[in-house]
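Hello Y.,

Per our agreement to keep a running log of every chain we model this quarter, I'm adding this entry. I've kept the format consistent with earlier entries: sequence first, then predicted structure.
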Amino acid sequence: MAIAGLADGLTRGIEGFGERVSGALFEPVIRLGVTGLARAGKTVFITSLVANLLDRGRMGGLAAAGEGRILGAYLQPQPDVTLPRFDYETHLAALTGPEPRWPESTRSVSELRLSLRVRPAGMLAGMAGPRNVHLDIVDYPGEWLLDLALLDKDYAAWSREALARAGGRAEGASWCKALAGVDPAAAFDEGQAQRLAAGFTAYLRAAREAGHADCTPGRFLLPGDLEGAPVVTFAPLPEAEGAGRGSLRAEMARRFEAYKRAVVRPFFRAHFARIDRQVVLVDLLDALHRGPLAVEETRRAMADILGTFRPGRNAFLTRLLQGRRVERLLFAATKADHLHHAQHPRLAAIMEAMLREARDRAQYAGADVRGMAIAALRATVEETRRHGGAEVELVRGRVPGGGQAAFHAGELPADPAAILSPARAGAEAWPEGAFGSMRFAPARLGLRAGEGPPHIRLDRAAQFLFGDRL
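Predicted structure for the entry above:
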């Protein structure tokens, strides 16, 4: 088994080396991974990014576009014919139609290739002609990325964490009540295992719907063709005396290990290990609205993600066996258009502060990591109104069901510690008052020739993620 795994790793390493040499000499390929925590706008991000690379009038912050060096862009068939294609055209039609709506979320891995015809810059400008650079965008659920953190845990550690989370959430009340009558040391029964797994899955779905970020195992929410298989039919159980071989807890532990071996590791080898650049989208405004506990939960999820990207001690061997190492990692706070632009620097500062704490917790050192506040598709306009004798900076936009609404989320603090300190301390509410939340519908767009959809700092995000490769 070990020899087979080593041979497989060496084969992948050789293939990855060949791909890199070919790309460097002929047509470079950038593999951009895109994922997001709960309801962060992943599908909108990819759709708007592609649309704005095809029509680059709003992409001045991407150096190659601002300098006029991107001579053309076009979609072409993706290289991996075993993956579903990201349905760009359908999603764009949803966002730009006469009655625009948010597109349906993707529920599995998908891919899209965008090829850019780029004229080189600097010393190479007069020595080489334009060349094609291929951007392969790999879209996958955030829950699957968080699953990679399970590789460092055994069943006992995962059970303790999962039970503690469920016990502290309203969504976990019925699950915890059902678990109270279960004897983990009893003989294994398949019917009981299925009921426990179904109850745990129902709790995870409710938690995700409520906006919680750490709903793992991810395949419980998006099982695909694994639905009903024993590898996704387990649940966390408390430790118990006498829970030996043949017990309910022992079988649950066996299935947990099988999940890591048969589901998580293959995903890592097939997709994650081949990514060059990665963006993780975070709905930080929703976490602020839900309170300090939600912000702390988001920070912990960010730390788990950073731990996933942490290079091992044998970094060279790791790269050889598992392909490329992610070179740049962006954590983007989405929906910046829900705030007046005057508050954008504060939102970005909170994200950067959370990222620093997450990096410290994960003992992370590796890729170039950055935080940013963006809106992949701007759905609002700004205005100022007088209220109570003072000027209030608002955003206004369409709301689901029709009509317009003006909105002020509240004043974000200038010092991120005013957010992170109560979050770390486990406060139930913000000491200075709550932050609001609003669900806007996409704005009706009238795009001029050569312009993609309006956004906020999407061009700067693109510059950080892959601008250096153009």
